[in-house]
Design goal:
341 residues; alpha/beta; 34% helix
Length: 341
């Protein structure tokens, strides 16, 4: 296979790199995430390689860590392009801003973890955008609703401090997108719902980018049953993450987990923005993600479903995979469409 030609997810799944990555990930998760919903935090921190901020540009991107609330270790990492590119012809007002929530089952990773520092740098360069990656508190030490509270607090901080350190002069806070991958997509949804009830003057949310969002439910879906040993997100790990996040005594139909379930919050009357939902065919959560899209449509919201049949959970973290580049293009088109409304 030519090194210049990107491989599909189906082809990449057969490579030694994919097999080794899955093996190592499964081994690490076995020792880090326990069945009772607790996490071996010491081991997790040891294995989670952190990337320091780089005010000096690195591959065309500079980063700043901005403290929001030191008492709860709430901060975000700003990713800004250097040199600052001119805005696209269809968006003369400036660069769009993506407020991003990382995945990790509510319990793992951070804004400065290597995989997410790398991903956000890629989003900056390929989407010509400014990215704000939120470092929210983790479960099980901090359960629901801490992650949502932290996310909304960052929006409030930006609203009150629109010229914070490092933000490019032509960053357009009136053209914001709330995004996230895996459970970060879950957080993005709930933060956006909360934002619908607040009047902002210095920022405007034009869309939601839900990349394989992490939603759950008490009744197992077909994909959860059939894909119990899916790469990077098997059934045991899912159970651990849900147990670590939800309040004691709650089941998977808790409104935080099942957003269009029996106990969910009705968003029909809220001005919820347009949403793009990215789905992978080898993701055990794919049925839940499709139900999320359908739920948005039933509530009268603008929503777009993009599915890659052979994509596994977290496929977008592998830039050499064809579907990863296709996703970037789809997100770019979505953002440009919402920016011109």
């Amino acid at each position: 296979m030519s090194n210049n030609k990107p491989s599909t997810c189906a082809d990449f799944a057969k490579t030694w790199k994919m097999k080794l990555t899955v093996f190592v990930t499964n081994l690490v998760m076995k020792f880090c995430c326990r069945s009772d919903g607790t996490v071996n935090r010491r081991l997790v921190n040891f294995l989670d390689f952190k990337v320091p901020p780089s005010v000096k540009p690195l591959n065309g991107v500079k980063t700043y860590d901005i403290i929001v609330d030191a008492s709860r270790n709430l901060w975000f990492r700003l990713f800004a392009p250097v040199p600052v590119p001119a805005p696209a012809p269809t968006d003369a007002s400036g660069l769009p801003v993506i407020i991003f929530f990382h995945g990790g089952g509510f319990a793992l990773m951070s804004a400065d973890s290597l995989p997410y520092d790398t991903l956000c740098r890629r989003l900056v360069k390929e989407l010509s955008a400014v990215v704000i990656s939120v470092n929210y508190r983790l479960s099980p030490e901090f359960k629901y609703p801490c992650q949502y509270e932290d996310g909304f607090e960052v929006l409030t901080f930006i609203e009150c401090n629109p010229s914070f350190e490092g933000i490019p002069r032509n960053a357009d806070l009136m053209n914001c997108f709330i995004g996230g991958d895996s459970v970060g997509g879950n957080i993005a949804h709930h933060v956006t719902v909360k934002a619908c009830d607040k009047e902002f003057t210095n920022l405007k949310i034009n869309g939601v980018i839900a990349i394989q969002p992490g939603f759950f439910g008490q009744e197992k879906t077909e994909s959860e049953i059939m894909l119990v040993r899916a790469p990077f997100l098997d059934a045991r790990l899912l159970d651990c993450f849900v147990k670590a996040f939800l309040p004691e005594g709650s089941d998977r139909d808790h409104p935080a987990a099942n957003v269009f379930g029996p106990n969910s919050v009705d968003i029909s009357g809220r001005k919820f923005p347009a949403t793009i939902v990215i789905v992978g065919g080898i993701d055990p959560l794919k049925d839940r993600q499709k139900r999320y899209y359908e739920g948005l449509k039933k509530c009268g919201k603008e929503a777009y479903l993009i599915e890659y049949p052979n994509a596994f959970h977290s496929f977008y973290t592998f830039p050499e995979v064809l579907e990863s580049s296709l996703m970037i293009n789809q997100v770019r088109d979505f953002m440009q469409k919402q920016s011109t409304k």
